[in-house]
Fold:
Amino acid sequence: MPIIAMSNPKGGAGKSTTALLLATYLAERGAKVCVLDADPNQPILDWKENGNTASTLEVIGGIKESNLMEHVERLNHQFVIIDLEGTASLLVSRAIALSDFVIVPLQASAVDVRQAGKAIRTIRDEEKVVQRYDAKRRIPYKILLTRTPAPGAPVSSVQRQLEAEITATNIPRFRTTIADRLAYKAVFVERLTLTELKDRAIKVGNLDAAYQNIHDFATELVEELQPTTPTEEHRER
Amino acid sequence: MNGKFGLPPDDQGTPQPDPQAALTQRLTAFPSATRTAPLALREVDAAAAAHGFVSREQTVNRPRRRRIAVAEPTRHLAIRLPESQYNRFVLYADRLKLTYHDALRQLLDQVGV
Structure:
């Protein structure tokens, strides 16, 4: 059961959007997926409870420092995605320490990048802490560029500089970026999945391209994750 | 042979793999399993605090409680328990305005122990 956290202390970096798009896509592909909505605004819980989606995605809200561990230990899903708040809180750091993979979404802006740096340093330190108990334990992470121009559109100089710096510093990043698309905003407005938007003929930009974008991202992520067999840390329920 | 460079066309009709089906197949390798994740929260929190990660939640206050004299001899019970359970117990006692030992007695009475 890989636990995947979305972390960047900067708000608006694309954590909730990425979490929802990834989770609904994996669920649509037949996986049993749960999102722990740890964002105080509860955007994913709102999406699930106040809409008419038929997605099998399960969403649990009200996640706090004091109940995070308890919730995680009760779950038996194939994938658990934790959508974290855009602050530097103990809830965020505890979720990072629990996770098998951390996605650090960020837009090509100086503020996003500086805050992402804080998240990355925390991931590295938390990894050292958990390795005191399990020397083999790793907390891998990758930067995910969000709200990038659609393929073929001009790329800003800020983004080019950022990508050059990521390459120079050897910080791992996803090849795929999440483009700035109307369809992603519509997912939250209509409270539907990308597929449901298409099925209902809701016109919100290029839905096929949006779907392909998420497919590419999900495929790249799943290649990073190792299926685990039940061990002393994992047990079948 | 067609084309300016004489490249042979793929006339074998090689079926292209469906990338979405391939992902669906790969996802089945991930088992549904629960996770037991004992973490030393104090150390995890300390590592995060160095980078400015602090608690954003109100912690449970522990007001001074009135000591109740009891006729029988008393014994000391020290319990180490998960923070979430600790908070639940303290909230339960606060909500009912009970001392901890009265709260524990009430819970024991409820289950008939």
In short: Helices of chain B lie at 19-27, 41-49, 83-95, 100-110. The beta strands of chain B are 34-35. The longest strand of chain B covers residues 34-35.
